[in-house]
């Protein structure tokens, strides 16, 4: 602690990461971690944090800016040069999150929402509510009076269900019924065991169980609408528990932010390299992974979180400084510090990840290898290559689940040429527009014949087989199309332009 102009009794409400290149985004009570600037370079960000009412700023080499912090009425914490920012953030956020979880019902972000929902459910059902995950760990509970039974008391004190009671519930088949699907499970009162009457409902994402809501009857009977309210609560809680399960740890969250900032060009390469322990002058590559969109949104979100963990484990085993992040629904992995001729090993790694996802997550994953770039600062270009390959694979080009730019280069370049033509209407041949309009009014048979003829390099019999019509029919339709449009298909320039624009 280098400066504390307002004393040490300042409440910290959140921990935020800030890069000086970004607009100020601190709020009152924030502990701001300045990861992109040291020493005097951090002065502007410190002043901005002070104006926003932030509680404190943490920076490396803070001595040159002590006076700036004092003038800005904000506490200044110096972080040792050897400390890694993800460790600092994990430590600070762990303290803040622990305080939130033990605070009032409306405090916190994820757990706070669950405590608030538990209290709402208690009001609607007239009972005492607790929310648990699939391992019977208590995530949140409603306020209670003296009518708490032994099972609830021990569960809340231990933050998980006591084993002897859990064994009885398993023996009675309660958990099997809760996991089986949506619906209300009733548990009768057992005074001899210290158990009052309860109702419970499983929380599910599709067929996957996420947790359970328990409602214990207190001194008064449950409300007439208690079961309806509990059923609605079990459905409403699914997104909250998905969020709770998929929220990354503070360390993972920082590493995700570092990769996103690097690929978006928001962070300096030297800053990222320093924090992950990578050499910015060595080659790097970005792998891109995509999930199919044929699943429900909640299930896809859970699968993506599991995929992130799977990719993180595999890539960290290959490169200690690997980074993994989700950007725009895709998962990206950055592999820095590559040795020479690493492409073969990276391809094998991608295939291993895809195969493991298929076997253990029961989901088909596509993987794309960006080009190996000579230095870390070119990682965004490698990410661009991976995106182009994934887009091409999504259009159905190629049957493999793993591909590099070299594997689909022709399809990628063709799609980019077509995209350019699509954005430049002034360079389209109006004769082809007339052909397309004419064909649309007369059965739509000429354009497919011309395209098949051009794709077959003028081989009429091959085009006929593709269209499943007689070769003479192909000849007639091609001549008819040339007559309608005025295009000379014997001219190489007109021929290639026709092929491109008709594909568009």
Automatic annotation (TrEMBL):
Boundaries of every PucR C-terminal helix-turn-helix domain copy: 446-503
Ranges for domain CdaR GGDEF-like: 268-391
Annotated InterPro entries: CdaR-like_regulators, CdaR_GGDEF, PucR_C-HTH_dom, PucR_C-HTH_sf
Pfam family, one: HTH_30
Homology family: Belongs to the CdaR family.
PANTHER family referenced in this protein's UniProt entry, alphabetically: CARBOHYDRATE DIACID REGULATOR, CONSERVED PROTEIN
Name of the featured protein: Transcriptional regulator
């Amino acid at each position: 602690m280098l400066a504390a102009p307002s004393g040490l009794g300042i409440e910290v409400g959140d921990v935020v990461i800030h890069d000086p290149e970004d607009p100020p985004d601190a709020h009152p009570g924030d502990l701001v971690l300045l990861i992109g600037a040291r020493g005097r370079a951090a002065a502007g960000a410190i002043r901005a944090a002070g104006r926003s009412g932030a509680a404190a700023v943490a920076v490396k080499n803070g001595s040159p800016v002590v006076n700036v912090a004092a003038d800005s009425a904000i506490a200044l914490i110096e972080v040792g040069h050897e400390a890694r920012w993800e460790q600092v953030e994990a430590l600070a956020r762990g303290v803040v999150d622990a305080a939130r979880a033990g605070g009032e019902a409306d405090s916190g972000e994820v757990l706070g929402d669950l405590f608030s929902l538990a209290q709402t459910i208690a009001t609607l059902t007239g009972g005492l509510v607790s929310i648990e995950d699939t391992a019977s760990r208590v995530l949140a509970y409603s306020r209670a009076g003296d009518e708490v039974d032994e099972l609830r008391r021990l569960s809340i004190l231990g933050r998980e269900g006591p084993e002897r009671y859990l064994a009885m519930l398993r023996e009675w088949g309660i958990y099997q019924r809760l996991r089986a699907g949506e619906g209300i499970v009733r548990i009768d009162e057992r005074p001899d065991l210290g158990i009052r009457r309860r109702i419970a409902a499983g929380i599910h994402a599709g067929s996957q169980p996420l947790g359970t809501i328990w409602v214990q009857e207190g001194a008064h009977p449950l409300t007439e609408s208690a079961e309806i309210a509990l059923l609605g609560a079990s459905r409403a809680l699914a997104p909250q528990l998905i969020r709770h399960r998929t929220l990354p740890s503070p360390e993972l969250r920082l590493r995700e932010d570092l990769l996103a900032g690097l690929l978006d060009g928001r962070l300096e390469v030297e800053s990222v390299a320093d924090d992950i322990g990578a050499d910015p002058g060595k080659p790097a590559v970005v792998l891109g992974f995509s999930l199919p969109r044929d699943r429900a949104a909640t299930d896809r979100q859970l699968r993506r979180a599991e995929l992130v963990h799977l990719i993180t484990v595999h890539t960290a085993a290959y490169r200690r400084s690997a980074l993994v992040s989700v950007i725009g629904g895709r998962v990206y992995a950055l592999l820095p510090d590559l040795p020479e001729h690493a492409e073969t090993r990276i391809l094998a790694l991608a295939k291993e990840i895809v195969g493991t996802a298929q076997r253990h997550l029961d989901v088909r994953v596509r993987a794309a290898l960006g080009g190996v770039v000579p230095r870390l600062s070119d990682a965004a270009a490698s990410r661009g290559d991976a995106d182009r390959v994934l887009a091409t694979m999504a259009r159905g080009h190629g049957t493999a689940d793993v591909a590099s730019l070299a594997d689909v280069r022709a399809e990628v370049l063709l799609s980019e040429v077509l995209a350019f033509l699509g954005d430049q209407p002034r360079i389209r041949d109006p004769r082809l527009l007339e052909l397309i309009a004419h064909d649309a009014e007369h059965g739509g048979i000429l354009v497919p014949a011309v395209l098949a003829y051009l794709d077959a390099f003028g081989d009429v019999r091959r085009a006929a087989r593709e269209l499943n019509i007689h070769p003479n029919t192909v000849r007639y339709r091609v001549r008819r199309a040339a007559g309608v449009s005025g295009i000379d298909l014997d001219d190489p320039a007109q021929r290639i332009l026709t092929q491109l624009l008709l594909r568009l």
